[in-house]
Amino acid sequence: MSNFTVNGVYSYTSSNIYSYLGRVPSSSTKLKEAFDEFNITPTGKTEDLKKLDRAMYAEYSEQVQNQIENQKGEKVVPWAGLCAQIGVKATGDYEKDYAAFNNAIKLLSQSAIDGQAMAYFAGLRTEASQVFGAANNSSNTPTMTYDEFQIQFLR
Q1: What is the 3-state secondary structure (H, E, C) of the chain?
Q2: How many Cβ atoms from other residues are within 10 Å of residue 42's Cβ?
Q3: How many CB atoms lie within 10 A of CB 79?
Q4: Residue 79 pLDDT more than 50?
Q5: Distances in Å between the alpha carbon of 154 and those of 142, 146, 148?
């Protein structure tokens, strides 16, 4: 167990730091920087670590909340990236986007003169059948069972 000294006077044990912050800084300087960043005046008491933990958590929570707020107005369109590959801007309307994609890929395929381009467009068609098909699938059946999910994360 090591001690971290802040301002040359206040000492905190690594076990106390870990118990309140969940990690130990790499040096006393890093601990001092954290106190300074969150405007906490060290006193050498464990209450300082509690305050630091609350301040760090509050900042993190605010960042997450801001990300959520920024994403609320955005509609996630699963086929947007696929459409962008051929110059079609996805609107989020399944029928319109699917028709626009098919029209664009048909025109592009007709102008393809080499085998590589034709193979590329065939690959896009295959990807489109998966992306648009999955988006149009009305079934709420998960793609993997709960047991498979557990195995994936518990290896």
Answers
A1: CCEEEECCCEEEEHHHHHHHHCCCCCCHHHHHHHHHHCCCCCCCCHHHHHHHHHHHHHHHHHHHHHHHHHHHCCCCCCCHHHHHCCCCCCCCCHHHHHHHHHHHHHHHHHHCCCHHHHHHHHHHHHHHHHHHHHHHCCCCCCCCCHHHHHHHHCC
A2: 20
A3: 21
A4: yes
A5: 19, 12, 10
pLDDT at residue 72, as a whole number: 62
Query: CA of 106: how far to CAs of 8, 65, 121, in Å?
Result: 73, 43, 9
Angstrom distance (rounded) from CA 64 to CA 101: 35
* Longest CA pairwise span in the chain (Å): 77
Is 101 within 8 Å of 83 (Cβ atoms)?
A: yes
From the CA atom positions of the chain, what is the Rg in Å? 27
Amino acid at 145: T
Cα 57 from chain centroid (whole Å): 18
pLDDT digits (tens, 9 = 90+) for 28-74: 888 998 899 889 999 999 999 999 888 888 888 777 776 666 666 55
